[in-house]
Structures are given as structure tokens and as C-alpha cells.
Design brief:
Layout lengths: L13 H12 L9 H20 L13 H15 L6 E5 L4 H11 L4 E5 L9 H7 L4 E5 L13 H11 L2 E3 L4
Helix pairs in contact: 3-4
Length: 175
Amino acid sequence: MIYLDNAATTKMAPEVIDEMKECFEKFYNPSSNYSGSFETKKIIDKARAEIANLISAKPSEIIFTSGGSEGDNFAIKGLADANKDKGRHIVTSAIEHKAVLNTTSFLEDHGYEVSYVQPDSRGFLHISDIEKAIREDTVLVTIMMANNEIGTIQPVSEISALCKDRGILFHTDAV
């Protein structure tokens, strides 16, 4: 079989499987108070510390979710809500994953305005179009790194720099 959907779901790397084996055997609730749960909590805390170290963050800043969609939803709603006093405008693209589009639609139903930047005919976003969509009340720009259906890779470094220069939060779905 030839598998052509790696942009959406990719086979797990053998190194990841090896690292996860211990977790499959220690399935205890890490928030409980019995010996098995303490072992599970240690594994999670170690993973949180390793990830934080990789991205120069604090372990307390690392939040695990059940998957990318939940993570997008959590981040976008949380960032919008935490900054609603600064503005209620969000910029995204028309070709985001449903996890982002459903979340921005939810926010529109709750008083936010969303600008949907259109890609060119090949599926690429242009920084100038994102810049035009930004307003005085923009609090968040959310653009996926790589499109899960067509595989286009967006200029997230440039978008991030633009947002940083303007004091706007930037979120990317980089799953």
C-alpha cells in the first residue's frame, strides 16, 4: 500500500514507541494517591521537564492534551478570553484545520470578529495579506504550519515576527 496522508497522520517512529512502552504498562491515574499513580506522575513530570528544556520554557508552562484538536481549542479560546479586554479580533486563514475553524466560529458566536485570509491558488498565504487583516483590536493570529490536506508550509517565522513587532499573540497548529 502507498500511504499518501502523512500530512494528516503519520506512523509513529520506533524511538517514540520504545519510549512509550513504559507508559503502556503504567496506566495509573497520576492524580491519585497510591503507589502506581506516583510512578505515572514521575513519568509525566519527566516528559514535561524534557519538553520544557527543548523549547526554553518552564515545566509549569507545558500542558498535555489528548490531541491536536483539543490543544488548538484550548489555546485559541484561552488566549482570546485572557485578552478580550485588549480586543476581540482574530486573524486566521480560510484553509485551517477544522479544529481551528470550529473554534474561531465558536468565538464569533460569542462576540469576537474573525478575519479569514485567503491563500493563493497553490495554497500559500502571503505575509502582506495577513498584515492587511491585522487591526488595532487584533489580539491573536492563528495560522497552521503545514496544511494537513495539501501539504503547503506557511511562513510561520515571518508571521510570528510580524505579530511580535505589533504586540499580537501568535498561535500555530504545528501538529
